[in-house]
Amino acid sequence: MSSPSAKPTCLSQPVVKSVVVYRNGDPFFPGRRVVIHEKKVSSFDVFLKEVTSGVNAPFGAVRNIYTPHGGHRVRQLDQIQTGEHYVAGGREAFKKLNYLDIGEPKKRPIETNNEQAPPSIS
Question: The organism sits in which domain of life (predicted)?
């Protein structure tokens, strides 16, 4: 039991989450890192406003957040997990793309040169 004179400790750190957010249906937007600080982002609506300004969505305000695999809708701030990737959408439905591969350089097969070097003349 704590006494009324007990002071709160200053050792507790505020919760900070960092996520990458993509634009719904945009195959060229590489994603934007959004930091969620519990003192600055107190509700899911405030988070949606932060994402709206972060991704500069062409569809206007961000109204929905989806998971990139399967497009499951995220409805609460506590469902957001640090280090994960999400898709920001307006009022439109989730558009299935391979969001996690956007912006990664395509791997090209290494070309082998089967030609022989010309004989050197001594």
Answer: Eukaryota
